[in-house]
Amino acid sequence: MANRIEQDHRRFRQIVKGRIRGDLKRFIARGDFLARDGKKIVSVPVHDIDLPRFRYGDNSGGVGMGEGDEGDGKGEGGQQSQGGDQPGQHAHEVDVSLEELADILGEELELPNIKPKGEHRLTTIKDKYTGIRQSGPSALRHFKRSYREAIKRQMMLGDYDHADPIVVPIKRDMRYRSWDEVKAPQSNAVIVSMMDVSGSMGGEQKDLVRLEAFWIDTWLRRNYDGVESRYIVHDVGAREVDRDTFFSLREDGGTRISSAYQLCLDLLEEKYDPSSWNIYLFHFSDGDNSSDADNRQCVKLLKEKLLPMCNLFGYCQVASAYGSGNFINVLHDKFPDRDSRSDDAESGLITSRINGRDDIMGSLRTLFKPGR
């Protein structure tokens, strides 16, 4: 019975994954998921899946036998109510781990697994299965070894019938996997997200950034054991903030992009040695900057400092009716080999444009297709 239940559960999970994969673009574009704070689970509404249910007896009977008269089916004012004649769409919320969601994303976008760079100096404690023991939780039961013990016992007692081989394990036949704690190299990554919060970045732009940043974080966490996230906002000046502030803050004023790049550099030099950390930098902006002089300063910081340190620098430009949109052109002019897959410093820069929610899926493919 337990095996049948597990098989049915696996089949159901496969159906759910297929439905999510088919509607992935809609989930990404509309943010059609509910993340639970502090847990690695999201609740995804999936349409047209009939969940199993129990049915008891014959449901064709009449009204109940309690006190009161049978209702006459009329609405307010004594008018006869009319039922709808169209079927409804039923959505069931299915819990899916972020690891499963990232796998679906990678399969759909055909993303290669990321190859971490640098040395694995940091270690973490992991459980490694090393043998078999006679006691343990049911989740670690080793079915093959348990049935082998049952066959040996029945053969020794003369109860095994070769013509009708029925094997029934008992408690003393059960075998369970055992494990030891071992130290394993750990690939660590830091994600630094930078965003323009000047007056030209409105609520719509913030929503695009929120969705893009969620999927970036989900994919990188699937590829690394340990991930830290840092957040920087900027207008004419830059400062580090927490995650909630990053996604909700809106300010007026001008824009000086170099302030964010300089603060990011200071943060990396203080806390994240490139030989021990895989560094991912993402800047979200509408492409507006204060001056050509600051554009030149940004290019200098990228070429001389940031790009040599990081695995990837992703510049994502969101469309805005108030921004000039020129900064992406500056990067294209100064980094003509930005889409190269070679290992030189400049190849770590990747740019993408996000004009609307439907562009998020393509932007993710652009950022992670090289597998850095």
CATH topology of the largest domain: Rossmann fold
Average pLDDT reading? 76
Distance between the termini: 46 Å
Biggest sheet strand line-up: 8-7-6-9-10-11
**Large-scale geometry:** elongated
Number of distinct helices: 10
* Content of β-strand: 15-25%
Structural class: alpha/beta
Uncertain runs: 340-346
Computed CA radius of gyration, to the nearest angstrom: 29 Å
The SSE string, one letter per element, is HHEEEHEHEEHEEHHEHEHEH
Please indicate the count of domains. 3
From the 3D coordinates, which CATH architecture of the largest domain would you assign? 3-Layer(aba) Sandwich
Strands, count: 11
Q: Which CATH class of the largest domain applies here?
A: Alpha Beta
The major beta sheet can be summarized as: 6 strands, mixed
Relevant CATH superfamily of the largest domain? von Willebrand factor, type A domain
Helix fraction by DSSP (H/I, runs of at least 4): 25-40%
